[in-house]
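Hi P.,

Sorry for the delay on this. The queue was packed all week, but I finally got your sequence through. Input first:
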Amino acid sequence: MKPFVMMLLGISLIAAPVLAQSNLVVSAFTGYSMSAFEDQESAAGTLPLGITVGHPVNSSLEVGGELNYALGGYNFESNVSGGKLTTTFNQLVVGAFGKYHFQNSSKYAPYAKAGLGFFTGDAQMEFEYNGQKQKSDSNIDSGVGFSLGAGIKVNKNVFTEFNYNIVSRKPDGGNSFGMNTWGILVGWTFGQ
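Then the structure:
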């Protein structure tokens, strides 16, 4: 899945300036994302990479789609039976959003954002004991979740955003649990 996602993001970034010549609002972003999984004893962070394509409905409202990939996944380490267990949760979100831009006279333009997304990805586990490593993969059912956020357009092109994703997913042979995440993002808008 990783090569496909990286290829898709690369093509999107190359196409972004071309798409920006239309009436579409095309943005690329990165930042820092942290897990807020249900019942977790620790948290894991990762680097998100993504792109949004929006269409302004009027001067305040924008609707669009988003692709967000957790580069490297969320990595958790724990000690189990004298060994070290590393679990990596990979996540790709394909979603739709609505963004409301608050009108003001400041050079900073705040906005609120809400969305619905399809969350997918798998998990890899690696157990290390006495220098020996054993790896295994686990499927996690995809799920539909929600995203809430707020941001500020710093200028015509640069924005920063905080978002919180709420989703419940079920691993093979396990129970569903909340695989929520939050992120602080910085992005660049092409055109507009």
